Every structure is written in C-alpha cells, then in structure tokens.
Fold this sequence. Notes:
Layout: H1 2-9, H2 12-20, H3 35-41, H4 45-53, H5 68-74, H6 78-98
ANK repeats: 1-30, 31-63
InterPro entries: Ank_Repeat/CDKN_Inhibitor (IPR050776), Ankyrin_rpt (IPR002110), Ankyrin_rpt-contain_sf (IPR036770)
Keywords: ANK repeat, Repeat
Amino acid sequence: MPIHAAAAWGNPKCLEVLVRYGCNxxxxxxxNCSPVHHAARNxxxxxxEWLMKNGASLVELNLFGQKPADLALxxxxxxxxxxxxxxxxxxxxxxxxxxxxxxxxxxxx
Length: 109
C-alpha cells in the first residue's frame, strides 16, 4: 500500500499528500501493520512524529503481537522506542477516559 511504503521509506511529505487524498494513517496491511509500524521498524523518527501528530495509533498490535515501539527497539532504535512508548501511554490514558464503566449511566432514547 502506498501509505505503508511512504512510511517505510521515511517520507512525511509523501504521507501528507496521501492523507490529503484520503489515505488513512491507521490503515493496516496484510500483516496487521500500520504505517507507524513500518516507520518505527526503520527508525524514521521524523515520519513517526508526523504520523503521531496526525492520529496514528501507537497501541495497535501486528500479527506477531508487536506494537510500533517493539519494532523500533528490536531494530536498535531505543530512543525512538522510548518516544513511542511515552506517546502510547498518553493514547491509552485518553482511551480509558473515554471508555464507559459499569457505573456510568446511559440514557436510552
């Protein structure tokens, strides 16, 4: 997929054009990898930053159970893995704050 290739090559300008014309920053490929998985695996920190700023999920697991931070670390990009982990924690907190809990009341129409 073009958006995955642009992320793997570390080309945020290309990503910008693709997203402008309808590509999804969270599009999954056949291995359940998103563009941020590909960018992280290849150590493209600028591309990862662009994807994060444009709504990329950092908590998505690929078919091997790996998150983008796991791929960055496995490919010897520990600083990038740390950045991704910090942002992933923020994403999880935001998701938790939006999740309904059993004690939440829901009004039916």
